[in-house]
Amino acid sequence: MTVAIRSATLADRQALYDLYAQLQPADPPWPSEAAAADALSRVLEHPGMTILLGEVNGIAVSTCTLIVSPNFTRSGRSFAMIENVVTHRDHRQRGYGRHVIERAIEIARGQGCYRVTLMTGSKREETLRFYETTGLHRNTKTAFEVRFL
Asked: What CATH topology corresponds to 4-133?
């Protein structure tokens, strides 16, 4: 089946919540619908941020977040990051995740970004190979992070 990819809207809050629950099942529930709607509004209104949503027959099956950041190196060319990649467990292995990532890369290229970065915590070889099928290359950068939990 063909996946239709579009930018998410506030009306997609429940579909995104359901997908993200599969990405981060240990996340606590939202304290209220209003808090969830407010947080999603802030993300959607933030300059340079796009949540892409893949749908099949109107059902949300995959998503990723594209963040395009202005930059003062590379002659001012922006860079992009892809985060929060997830495909619904009932729709995996059909190319839907690959399509949303490829669309994110296409958007970043169209906005003049000089690179796109995606980091994963997965060590599973099949996950790493999946990301390579989208045109991403592993071992080109080393990531460091501090988490505040």
From this structure: Aminopeptidase (3.40.630)
